[in-house]
Structures
1.
Amino acid sequence: MKQIIFSLFSTVQPRMVRLFRLLGRLLLNTDRSERQRVLATVRQWINAGISYFQHRLSAFKIKKTAHYSHIIVIVSLPLLSGFFLYLEHVTHYEFLLHAAAIPLEILVGAILVEQYLAVSEKVRRARQLMLIKSCLFRTELRTLYLTNFGALDYPKISLFGISEAGVDQLKAWLLEVDNARYRSSEAMEAVVMEYVNAYPAFNRFLEWAISNDFERIFHDMIMLMHYIHDAQLFKSLHPDEMFISKALENPELMQRTQTVLTDGLKSFLKFCIELKESEPDVFSMLMDDFQASDRLKLEPQKFGTLR
């Protein structure tokens, strides 16, 4: 922090000296074109100072830099206006009133409007994510989730139960999924193979996350796709063996498998909670599609007991 302050001071000090010299010249010069030129120079320097300040903070990688730098700039601009107003009060020079308006113009035009647009964009992207997930869950990932829920031994979660459950019940299931158990190794194998089959859908979702700067989704998809590649490689080398049999011999691989499968259940339940609270119509359409698949006998077969 001391380095930042020293660097800022060493940069700002000569600029402030030049600014005071300009203001001094302005006090003695009443030419209109000269006043306009100096006014434009002051505005340019203020913008340059803001950009430099934010850049220096970013260079030192301060925690929550963007948030803090915006706060500092928003606070400093009215102070700068106050400084110009004080000079006007002391010197009674009307031009300084125009100079005092420049930081406020920047505050409203370049910062507050920017923040409003950023919030609007965040809301738009969140809704876009919701629609894309709804489409994926109702189409390419539908069989995966049918298989995953159908293979559960604990907790007992049915599609009809999800459709009729309230938000509190969905949240309770979400907690119980952390201790999920599957009916058999064959049941888990079927779920893993559905993940392998859904690889193209996950890959497209990864590309969308990269394009729209969803970092959390990006990291989740990378972890998932690494796991799917491991399963694909095993099946290509041992087509007649079960991937789960290998996982049962390797505690680390089994833990990864359990994490992938239960994370899938949790992502579906979280999405159902989100829709139930904010988009009940979309939730109804989602569950209608899943229950239609159930009626068409797309729901996975019943499995035996986990060995």
Note: DSSP finds 13 helices and two strands in the chain.
2.
Amino acid sequence: MGWLSNKILRLSVNSQRKEMTIFVDTLRGMDPDEIAIGLAFATNFRNTIDLTLPSNLSLLDPFALVEAYPTITYENANGIKKLQKNGLYHQAAGVMVWQHTLRAALTPELRHLARTMWQELSRAMTSPTMLRAAMTIKLMGIPLTLDVNDYDVFPKGFEPQQTPDTIRF
């Protein structure tokens, strides 16, 4: 790559890092019930998209997915903009979870942020929390039936890192 290509790539990675850092910081400031609403939309998005993919591909294997569909992050970005333009911010946040995950699969410098994001999302990965989120979404008047099956499954390569005090023998 030439110097211009490297400069553009570096600017892009820095912009994505900034977006992910803001997203992770926002999650850190939320309680599990707030996170669960975004996790419900993220899970629904994953389950819906996975139905449209060949059986050997899934958002749960982001490395294989970006290899098979190199433009998927551009398509997601357009989808996020449309959701935000229509005022569907909760749904956009759910897609952003996967956008950040896919970007991290493409860019090693972002992977630690994606793992941190999934660690924060894991605070909402309990049945009671997800049940409350489903009720909250219904009360918000959002006319969707969400598919939140396997809400507690991490994408390959983005499982939160275990620290020595969390490793069980």
Note: The chain is about 65% helix and 0% strand.
